[in-house]
Amino acid sequence: MDCKVIEQILADALSLTEVHVTSDGSHYKVVAVGDCFEDMSRVKQQQAIYGPLAEQIASGELHALTIKTFTPTQWKREKLFNM
């Protein structure tokens, strides 16, 4: 599955300021940034990402998925310390 397609699905479904998807064979990594994650538990954040991708996951088109979610403030801090 193309990374840009996954990014578009997530961008259409959620109010994200940034979304980045990378692939290493059949394993995908999603980094999603948005205010929508502000008051969500870690589990709810994961579910927010899995929800729009449920059809692709169920069909097997999208297999292994690593998800990292950030609010814009958390993302600024993450980039500052880890880039």
UniProtKB/TrEMBL annotation:
InterPro entries found in the cross-reference section: BolA, BolA-like_sf, BolA/IbaG_stress_morph_reg
Leader peptide range in chain numbering: none
Coiled-coil annotated residue ranges, if any: none
Pfam families found in the cross-reference section: BolA
Alphabetized SUPFAM superfamilies for the sequence: BolA-like
Similarity-based family: Belongs to the BolA/IbaG family.
Protein name: BolA family transcriptional regulator
Organism listed in the record: Shewanella gaetbuli
